[in-house]
Write a structure and sequence with these properties.
Elements lengths: L2 H24 L4 E7 L5 E7 L8 H4 L14 E5 L3 E3 L3 E3 L2 E10 L2 E7 L15 E27 L2 E18 L2
Antiparallel strand pairs: 1-2, 2-3, 3-6, 4-5, 4-9, 6-7, 7-8, 8-9
């Protein structure tokens, strides 16, 4: 490799890094990763953007009957360290996936998609779904302004996954062998 080629590669790499940092700073919604370690390699991690309602009704941010990215910016990313089962029905092999939801009256359909890294739901492809489950929607005790995902340990191999926004909360389980 010539010095000019090496220099060009370094400059391009630096420019890409600066561009990525600027994109991070321009985000309106904060980003968060929630993780849970059940021991023995049984780890769960979810990375997502946390949009706020800002006076909007929930159905404006997450329209009923439409695929929603479960957050803001990039699609929400689920990573499991071992094979898992979502909601007692959907087997998930160890790895990373994107999570989507279809909010509906009284329930949300949770979608696990095999394309882990994608922007929003704009290029969502149902043919890439690992599967879907329905989870009941509950009324929250108090309104939740900023979208929140929580993982709570239920046992040595089970976590409770809770999604909350506005006056709705949806919960299901993630079970690992």
């Amino acid at each position: 490799m010539t010095r000019r080629t090496v220099l060009s590669v370094c400059i391009a790499s630096a420019a890409a890094s600066v561009s990525a940092l600027q994109a991070q700073r321009k985000r309106i919604s904060p980003h968060e990763t929630v993780s849970l370690d059940l021991g023995g390699g049984k780890t769960i991690s979810i990375t997502y953007g946390r949009p706020s309602l800002k006076g909007r009704p929930l159905d404006q941010l997450a329209p009923p009957g439409q695929v929603w990215r479960l957050g803001a910016d990039e699609a929400t990313k689920l990573t499991v360290g071992t094979n898992a089962t979502l909601g007692g029905k959907l087997p998930i092999p160890a790895g990373s996936y994107s999570l989507f939801a279809i909010p509906q009256q009284g329930k949300w359909t949770l979608i696990v998609n095999k394309v882990a890294d994608q922007w929003g739901a704009f290029s969502y492809d149902q043919a890439q779904d690992l599967g879907r489950i329905d989870a009941p929607a509950q009324k929250t005790a108090a309104p939740v302004e900023e979208f929140t995902i929580a993982l709570d340990k239920q046992s040595s191999n089970t976590a409770k996954l809770t999604l909350s926004l506005g006056d709705q909360s949806v919960s299901t389980t993630i079970k690992m062998p």
